[in-house]
Task: structure prediction
Amino acid sequence: MSVKIDKKITAYEVAKADGEKESNVTQIAPLLEREDVLEGTTYKIKTPDSEHAMYITINDIVINQGQEDEHRRPFEMFINSKNMEHFMWIVALTRVVSAIFRKGGDVTFLAEEMKAVFDPRGGYYKRGGKYMPSIVAEIGEVIQKHLISIGMMEGQLDNAELQAKRKEAEEKLGADAMAKGQQCDKCGAMAVVRLDNCNCCLECGDSKCG
Result:
């Protein structure tokens, strides 16, 4: 049997078969919107392998401004340097990191993943004697410091107690103590050494002995 349609078709719907379930696909959350003016912080890193420093800027947005649950979170990252050797991968890295920031949610994994990146040519010691396995790892450390400073990530910034532990490690284990460290279960850094029969992370200060 055929049915003649005289009117213009403007819409249609598909009938579901008996027993067919509703789709359980969850829509991806919309991107965070950028304000015209953002507040940010710029960090300087200088490696012994390069004549020029890198300047890392992380801009934040304020969520629920003026409300009880107001808080800051990173929105975008830029890296600037006169050294053009790493230009291509730096541009790619900043775009990927910024895209993840704008998606919202938990972004702390970025710092942990980046700090675990090793340069096959070997790492270096930054000013103050701290070992860095790669430039990417030091950028990850900058992201971690920023997330801690705005309250998005647990941890402590460098303080007198942590600096004392690093000095003790150098005296007992040598200047390359951190280069030989194991991975920390708490912060993910390769900086766990044994001091006084106790495992201690020289990055975040976590200790198995309290």
Q: What stands out?
A: The first helix runs from residue 87 to 103. The radius of gyration is 24 Å.
